[in-house]
Specification:
Layout lengths: L1 H4 L4 E2 L4 E2 L4 E2 L4 E2 L4 E2 L4 E2 L4 E2 L4 E2 L4 E2 L4 E2 L4 E2 L3 E3 L4 E2 L4 E2 L25 E3 L4 E2 L4 E2 L4 E2 L4 E2 L4 E2 L7 E5 L2 E6 L7 E6 L6 E6 L5 E5 H4 L9
Parallel strand pairs: 1-4, 2-5, 3-6, 4-7, 5-8, 6-9, 7-10, 8-11, 9-12, 10-13, 12-15, 13-16, 14-17, 15-18, 16-19, 17-20, 19-21
Antiparallel strand pairs: 21-22, 23-24, 24-25
Length: 215
């Protein structure tokens, strides 16, 4: 029945996909996934085993979501994002099961805190993403990290809490300082160690790297 509702997709018989969801063409949804009402998933996406996509979540095109990822209401994921296995997003900064009077919290007894993952970003396995932050384009989150603050475009962060440890290329490898600009107070030239791509970055952004205990 699900395959008939989304004829140009590959949806495993054990997946639970709401008929109120929107699924783009050529997307694959594998065993035991759940996609809830009014969720929007773009074209050419892959959702691995056991992925949970909550109410009204927005996911772009060409997104890869590995096994047992939990994506809760309030999360927006742009095109080309990679999410490793067992990553967990959150959406409530002050979670409680009950109110001060002891009554069970209802659906409107909390404040939604939204999270944005921008184009091309990658999130390593078992990372936890605190709600209310933005992960920039082509950023890289290390496995097992607890991300509690915004991550800049191309930023490499890892640890608990995750700290800015460098910047990465669109290919995923680390950017290193190549040479300084004639006006070093303004910009720095960086280059990918793997593919050779070069970028000009603001010196103020480059100096934000936390260099303690770098490998």
């Amino acid at each position: 029945m699900t395959s008939q509702m989304f004829p140009n997709c590959r949806i495993h018989p054990t997946a639970d996909v709401s008929p109120q969801a929107t699924i783009g063409e050529h997307t694959s949804i594998w065993q035991h996934c759940q996609v809830r009402e009014r969720a929007k998933i773009g074209m050419n996406c892959v959702l691995g085993k056991g992925v949970y996509v909550d109410l009204q979540v927005n996911i772009g095109d060409n997104v890869k979501i590995q096994n047992y990822v939990s994506i809760y209401h309030g999360v927006t994921i742009e095109d080309g994002v990679f999410i490793g296995p067992h990553v967990c997003f959150t959406n409530d900064r002050l979670p409680r099961a009950i109110n001060p009077d002891g009554s069970l919290k209802a659906a409107d007894d909390w404040e939604l805190s939204e999270t944005y993952v921008q184009r091309g970003a990658s999130i390593g396995a078992n990372a936890t993403i605190r709600c209310g932050i933005q992960i920039g384009e082509w950023a890289m989150i290390g496995a097992g990290s607890v991300v509690t603050r915004d991550v800049p475009d191309y930023g490499l962060v890892y640890g608990n809490p995750a700290l800015l440890r460098g910047y990465v290329c669109v290919c995923g490898d680390r950017l290193v300082e190549r040479e300084t600009d004639p006006h070093p107070a303004e910009s720095v030239q960086v280059q990918c160690e793997h593919c050779g791509r070069q970028r000009t970055m603001l010196t103020s952004d480059w100096l934000k790297i936390n260099r303690s205990a770098l490998p």
